[in-house]
């Protein structure tokens, strides 16, 4: 026993190193599993407040750009209001519209922390549970898909960026509607790859890629990017398309969080039809 | 001794703020990111007790992790680097004894010594960090290339740091 203690005392440097390294690894493993909810809930409150202050200052530098973006969005909205249409008949009638039911509602939030320079990137938004944000909601801007909400605290939410190894988004080519999967495979944060597109599909550089609407998270027809290049990799039977993102992820300020009002209903019916054994 | 501890606490705070709010926001092609905070480990005194060296590295890494949302990665890499530091100093130095209470820098060491010392330790730190981040050897050469490039970028910042550190002492 004494020998053992002597041994440990003599090599205290190595054993301390081992102990600290084990602690570091425990922290790492615990938190990389299920996206570090522990870390986010406890520590992010403090750093979140600090980043809040930092973003308050930094935002002044982007005011011009935000204004331009807002003006553009306003213009699009004004174009859709009834005032911008000419009335061609004099009869006015009201009816309860059951053809259109609202499916998505949007909450706009500010990005207070963001990164593009890691293999797995996350964003932090300044709105949380109190503002109606829940896990698994989509995050978009007018320029494209940003990510998926992963964790929510009272005032903040953490978003799995599109630039993350686990993010998969169902997408389609706008002109012919063929489906594929968007994922991030390269260090370049302006480009993503679209995989699983069958080889007979006709593609040209410059084609627009949009969301397919087959997920329960994103609405249909949200912009993602344009085709820059495509090829069939050796040993694969599908086309891989290189997509230029329209949104600059290094310059995000305001985003919209999408709530699918029918998500639960859709999930329920899909769950039932997949799990219930059928007898007839 | 009291003042030197205060000095190091001051440096700690300045380096962490510089790393978190300035360097983490700089985007240099791809995902190369300078990690200047390792400079703090490099300039600790020669005669610092070795257990203290590890604990300081642990605290520094944990602080950086809190701000980077990386949970344990920087901690692990920094502790690893601190563990290698005495060995690297022994391996590249000719003399065994150093004056007490001095720290590595341009004012008491050759430029080539500082160059070797910092590049070796930064490279170990970055390689460890990047492989931990990817957590597999699948993209081995990409990751290695990343750590080499980042080492060079970090080294430039660290060298500027050494330059600033050695100036006031020379004047004295």
Describe the structure.
The complex is a heterodimer of chains A (280) and B (172). Chain A has 280 residues and is of the alpha+beta class. Chain A has one domain. Helix content of chain A is 30%, strand content 28%. Chain A contains five helices and twelve strands. Chain A has helices spanning 2-10, 12-32, 37-58, 63-80, 263-275, and strands at residues 104-114, 122-125, 138-141, 144-152, 157-161, 169-173, 179-183, 191-197, 208-211, 223-232, 239-245, 254-260. In chain A, the strands form two sheets. In chain A, strands 1-2-5-4-3-12 form a six-stranded antiparallel β-barrel. In chain A, strands 6-7-8-11-10-9 form a six-stranded antiparallel β-barrel. The longest helix of chain A has 22 residues, at 37-58. Chain B is mainly α and 172 residues long. In chain B, 70% of the residues lie in helices and 0% in strands. Chain B is globular and about 45 Å long. Classes of the chains: A alpha+beta (280), B mainly alpha (172). The interface between A and B is large, with 37 and 35 residues.
Write the layout of secondary structure elements.
The complex is a heterodimer of chains A (280) and B (172).
Chain A: H1 2-10, H2 12-32, H3 37-58, H4 63-80, E1 104-114, E2 122-125, E3 138-141, E4 144-152, E5 157-161, E6 169-173, E7 179-183, E8 191-197, E9 208-211, E10 223-232, E11 239-245, E12 254-260, H5 263-275
Antiparallel strand pairs in A: 1-2, 1-12, 2-5, 3-4, 3-12, 4-5, 6-7, 6-9, 7-8, 8-11, 9-10, 10-11
Chain B: H1 2-22, H2 38-42, H3 50-68, H4 73-92, H5 111-134, H6 140-171
Quick recap of the structure?
The complex is a heterodimer of chains A (280) and B (172). With 280 residues, chain A is α+β, with helices and mostly antiparallel strands.
């Amino acid at each position: 026993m004494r020998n053992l203690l002597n041994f440990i005392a003599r090599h205290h440097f190595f054993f301390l190193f081992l102990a600290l390294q084990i602690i570091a690894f425990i922290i790492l493993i615990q938190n990389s599993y299920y996206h570090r909810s522990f870390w986010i809930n406890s520590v992010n409150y403090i750093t979140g407040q600090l980043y809040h202050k930092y973003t308050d200052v930094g935002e002044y530098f982007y005011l011009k750009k935000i204004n331009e973006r807002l003006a553009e969005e306003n213009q699009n909205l004004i174009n859709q209001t009834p005032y911008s249409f000419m009335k061609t008949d004099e009869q006015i009638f009201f009816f309860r519209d059951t053809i259109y039911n609202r499916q998505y509602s949007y909450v706009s939030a500010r990005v207070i922390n963001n990164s593009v320079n890691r293999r797995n990137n996350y964003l932090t938004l300044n709105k949380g549970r109190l503002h109606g944000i829940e896990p698994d909601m989509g995050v978009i801007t007018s320029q494209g898909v940003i990510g998926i909400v992963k964790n929510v605290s009272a005032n903040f939410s953490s978003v799995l960026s599109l630039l993350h190894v686990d993010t998969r988004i169902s997408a389609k080519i706008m002109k012919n509607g063929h489906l594929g999967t968007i994922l991030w495979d390269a260090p370049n944060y302006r480009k993503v790859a679209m995989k699983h597109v069958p080889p007979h599909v006709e593609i040209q550089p410059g084609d627009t890629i949009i969301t397919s609407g087959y997920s329960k998270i994103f609405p249909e027809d949200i912009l993602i990017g344009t085709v820059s290049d495509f090829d069939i990799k050796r040993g694969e039977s599908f086309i891989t398309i290189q997509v230029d993102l329209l949104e600059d992820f290094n310059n995000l300020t305001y985003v919209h969080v999408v709530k699918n009002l029918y998500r639960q209903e859709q999930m329920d019916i899909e769950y039932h039809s997949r799990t219930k054994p059928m007898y007839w | 001794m009291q003042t030197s501890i205060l000095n190091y606490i001051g440096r700690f705070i300045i380096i962490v703020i510089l790393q978190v709010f300035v360097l983490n926001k700089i985007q240099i092609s791809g995902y190369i990111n300078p990690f200047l905070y390792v400079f703090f480990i490099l300039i600790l005194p020669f005669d610092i007790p070795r257990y203290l060296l590890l604990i300081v590295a642990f605290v520094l890494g944990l602080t950086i992790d809190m701000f980077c949302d990386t949970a344990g990665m920087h901690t692990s890499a920094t502790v690893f680097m601190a563990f290698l530091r005495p060995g690297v100093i022994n391996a590249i130095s000719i003399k065994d004894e150093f004056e007490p209470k001095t720290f590595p820098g341009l004012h008491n060491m050759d430029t080539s010594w500082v160059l070797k010392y910092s590049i070796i330790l930064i490279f170990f730190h970055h390689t460890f960090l990047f492989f931990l981040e990817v957590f597999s050897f699948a993209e081995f050469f990409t990751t290695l290339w990343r750590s080499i490039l980042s080492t060079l970028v970090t080294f430039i910042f660290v060298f500027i740091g050494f330059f600033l550190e050695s100036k006031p002492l020379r004047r004295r």
